[in-house]
Design brief:
Protein name: DNA helicase RecQ
Helix content: 40-55%
CATH architecture of the largest domain: 3-Layer(aba) Sandwich
CATH class of the largest domain: Alpha Beta
Distance between the termini: 45 Å
Oligomer: single chain
Shape: globular
Strand content: 5-15%
Number of helices: 26
EC number: 5.6.2.4
Number of strands: 17
CATH topology of the largest domain: Rossmann fold
CATH superfamily of the largest domain: P-loop containing nucleotide triphosphate hydrolases
Strand order of the largest sheet: 3-4-2-5-6-1-7
Largest sheet: 7 strands, parallel
Domain Helicase C-terminal: 214-360
GO cellular component, one term: replisome
Mean pLDDT: 87
Domain HRDC: 520-596
Number of domains: 4
C-alpha cells in the first residue's frame, strides 16, 4: 500500500504534512488515534485518504453543519463519493441518500452528533459497514474545552457499540494539555497514538494594535488589501452593523453575518464570500466555524475574543493555503469588560464562570505582552520549548528598551504592602494617591507607596500594571474578584536579582499597502488570468473558486508553467481527476500567456 501514491492521485500532493502519515497508518491498522494539529494543518486528509482505501464507509461526526457541504463538494470534485445527513436535508432527499449509502456507493458520510443519539437513525447506522469513525473538532467533548457541548458526550457510548470494531480518529486544532488528556480518557486513545504536530502557523503573522482609532484603521487596512479576502470579527451585532455600514459608505464591497439576520440573508452573505463575489465580511464569532475557504489573507479582530482558544481558532481561518497571511487584533481594555459582563450573566455554575474568568485573564495578558505573540500562544497550549517567531508585531518592534526596574519595584512593593488582597483598580488608585483612597477606612494613605506615582495618570499606571501582569511579574488570584499577587519572578525583581526592560510610548502605525499573495517569485499577470479562468469554471459548476484550485495551486502553476499533462500533474494540488477536468484549459491559458 503506497500512501504517497494515493495522496498524489486523489489529492494532488506529493508529500504528507507533519503527522498526517503517522495518523493514517494507525487508522489503516484499525486503531484508535488522536491528532492535535493547527487549523490549516491538513487534518481532513487524515480521514479522507483512508476512506478511499478502506472497505465500507467512513463516518465523519462534525458539529459544524456549515462545513459538511463544503467538504462533500470538495470530495466529489476530486472524484471521492461523499454525502451528508443533518437537519438541513429534507426527508425525501434524506431517504434517497440513505438508499445510496446502503448500496455501498458512498465512501464518506458526514453527520451531526445529534443524529447519533436518534434511535431510528442509529438503528439504520448499525447496519452499515463502517470502517472508520472520525470525530472532527473533538475539543467540544471536553468540559475543559472552550466550546464544550455536554450533549455530544451522549454519542460516544452508542458509537463505541457499533459492530465491526471500526478504527477511530479524533481531530482538533485548539486543545490545551488538560483538554488533550480529557479527550484521551473519554475516547480511550492510548498515549502512543496521540500525534501532536505543534500549533505554530509559520505563514501567519500575528499583530496587535493598541490605542488606534479602530474604524479608521479597519478602513485603511481593507482599502490597502482591497483585492484580498478577509474576515473582520466584532463582539456584538451592533458593532458588525456599524462597521458594515461604515465600509459600505466608503465604497467597499462588504458582507455581514450575525445571528440577528434572517437565515436567508446569512446564507447569501456566506455564499457571496465563499464564491469571491465579495472579498470582505464583517461578522460575530457565529461566522467561520467550518468555513473552509483557503484564500483568506487576513483576519482582523475589531474586538478581542474571550479566550486564547477562540482567538487562535479564528485567526487560523487565514492562510489555510499556506501562503502568507496576517491576523490583526485591535485592543482596548474596555473590550474585556464586555466579556466580563457576559460571564457574570452566564447561566453556568461557579466553576464554569471561574474557568471563563481565568481564560479571559490569559487573553488580557496576551494583549498586553511585549514578548513574541506566537510564542505566547504556543506556551499557552503547552509548547514551552519554542523560540520567538520573528514575524509578529512584537518581534518586529524596533523601539528601544527602557529600564523599568525602579517603577516595577514600586508597584510590587505596593502590592505587598497591601497584603496582596486587592485588585488592579484599587492598587492603581493607591499608587496615584487618589483622595477617595486617602479617606478610605483602610487608611491606605499611611502606606509608604501611597501616591508614589502622583505625577502620572490612572491610565498610565494601569498600563504599567497590565505590562507587569502580562509579562509574569504579577499574577492574578482568579475568581470573581481577582487580586494581584507577586510572582516568583516579581519577587526576584523586588530583591534586586532581576532587572525589567519595557518598550515605552506605544506607537500608532500606518498600514502600508502590500500584497499577501504576490511575492515577486512568479508573474502576477498570469496568476490573475488563471484566477479569472478558475472563476469561470466555478460559476459554471456552482462551486466556490477555491474548490476548483487553491491560490497556492495557481501560484505553483505560475511558477512551473506546465505545458503538458505530465508537467501539470507535478503542480501541487493537481491530481488525476483535476488533470482530466481542467488540465487542457489551464495549460492552454498558460501557453497563450507565454506566446502573447
Amino acid at each position: 500500500m503506497n500512501l504517497e501514491a494515493t495522496l498524489k492521485e486523489k489529492f494532488g500532493y506529493d508529500t504528507f504534512r507533519p503527522g498526517q502519515k503517522e495518523l493514517i497508518q494507525k487508522v489503516m491498522d484499525g486503531q484508535k488515534a488522536m491528532g492535535i494539529m493547527p487549523t490549516g494543518g491538513g487534518k481532513s486528509i487524515c480521514y479522507q485518504l483512508p476512506a478511499t482505501l478502506l472497505p465500507g464507509v467512513t463516518l465523519v461526526v462534525s458539529p459544524l453543519i456549515s462545513l459538511m457541504k463544503d467538504q462533500v463538494d470538495s470530495l466529489n470534485e476530486v472524484g471521492i463519493p461523499a454525502t451528508f445527513l443533518n437537519s438541513t436535508v429534507e426527508w425525501h432527499d434524506r431517504e434517497e441518500r440513505m438508499r445510496y449509502i446502503e448500496s455501498g456507493a458512498v465512501k464518506l458520510l458526514f453527520v451531526a452528533p445529534e443524529k447519533i443519539v436518534d434511535d431510528e437513525f442509529y438503528s439504520w447506522l448499525s447496519a452499515l459497514d463502517i470502517s472508520l469513525i472520525a470525530i472532527d473538532e473533538a475539543h467540544v467533548l471536553s468540559s475543559w474545552g472552550h466550546d464544550f457541548r455536554n450533549s455530544y458526550l451522549k454519542m460516544i457510548e452508542p458509537l463505541q457499540q457499533l459492530p465491526g470494531e471500526p478504527a477511530w480518529l479524533a481531530l482538533t486544532a485548539t486543545a490545551t494539555e488538560q483538554v488533550q488528556d480529557d479527550l484521551a480518557s473519554i475516547l480511550q486513545v492510548p498515549a502512543q497514538n496521540i500525534i501532536k504536530t505543534g500549533f505554530e502557523r509559520n505563514n501567519l503573522a500575528l499583530k496587535i494594535e493598541r490605542g488606534v482609532d479602530k474604524s479608521e484603521y479597519v478602513l485603511n487596512y481593507v482599502k490597502n488589501h482591497i483585492d484580498e479576502s478577509g474576515i473582520i470579527y466584532a463582539g456584538r451585532r451592533e458593532d458588525v452593523d456599524n462597521i458594515y455600514k461604515f465600509l459600505n459608505d466608503n465604497d467597499v464591497k462588504v458582507g455581514r453575518y450575525h445571528a440577528g439576520l434572517s437565515d436567508q440573508e446569512r446564507h447569501q452573505q456566506q455564499e457571496d464570500f465563499l464564491f469571491d463575489r465579495i472579498n470582505v465580511i464583517v461578522a460575530t464569532n457565529a461566522f467561520g466555524m467550518g468555513i473552509n475557504k483557503t484564500n483568506v489573507r487576513y483576519v482582523l479582530h475589531f474586538t478581542i475574543p474571550g479566550t486564547i482558544e477562540s482567538y487562535y481558532q479564528e485567526v487560523g481561518r487565514a492562510g489555510r493555503d499556506g501562503l502568507p497571511a496576517e491576523a490583526i487584533l485591535l485592543y482596548t481594555p474596555a473590550d474585556l469588560r464586555l466579556h466580563q459582563f457576559f460571564i457574570d450573566k452566564s447561566q453556568g455554575d461557579d466553576q464554569y464562570k471561574l474557568s471563563l474568568r481565568n481564560k479571559l485573564f490569559e487573553i488580557s495578558r496576551f494583549a498586553q505582552t511585549q514578548a513574541c505573540l506566537m510564542k505566547f500562544v504556543l506556551d499557552y497550549f503547552g509548547e514551552t520549548n519554542t523560540t520567538p517567531c520573528g514575524r509578529c508585531s512584537n518581534c518586529l518592534d524596533d523601539r528601544e528598551l527602557t529600564d523599568a526596574t525602579a517603577d516595577t519595584q514600586k508597584v510590587l512593593s505596593c502590592v505587598v504592602r497591601m497584603n496582596q488582597r486587592y485588585g488592579k483598580k484599587v492598587v492603581t488608585r493607591v499608587l496615584v494617591g487618589k483622595d477617595n483612597m486617602a479617606n478610605d477606612w483602610r487608611h491606605f494613605e499611611k502606606l509608604s507607596t501611597f501616591g508614589i506615582f502622583k505625577d502620572r495618570t490612572l491610565k498610565d499606571v494601569s498600563r504599567l500594571i497590565d505590562f507587569l501582569t502580562a509579562n509574569g511579574f504579577l499574577k492574578s488570584s482568579g475568581g470573581e474578584y481577582p487580586t494581584l499577587l507577586v510572582s516568583k519572578k516579581g519577587l526576584a525583581v523586588l530583591k534586586g536579582k532581576m532587572n525589567v526592560a519595557r518598550k515605552q510610548d506605544l506607537r500608532q502605525e500606518t498600514v502600508k499597502p502590500k500584497s499577501m499573495v504576490a511575492d515577486g517569485s512568479f508573474d502576477v499577470d498570469l496568476f490573475e488570468k488563471l484566477r479569472a479562468l478558475r472563476l469561470k469554471f466555478a460559476k459554471q459548476q456552482g462551486l466556490p473558486p477555491f474548490m476548483i484550485f487553491s491560490d497556492r495551486t495557481l501560484k505553483d502553476m505560475s511558477v512551473k508553467l506546465p505545458t503538458n499533462d505530465q508537467e501539470f500533474l507535478a503542480v501541487s494540488g493537481v491530481g488525476k481527476v483535476k488533470l482530466e477536468q481542467y488540465g487542457p484549459d489551464f495549460i492552454g491559458e498558460i501557453k497563450d500567456f507565454q506566446e502573447a
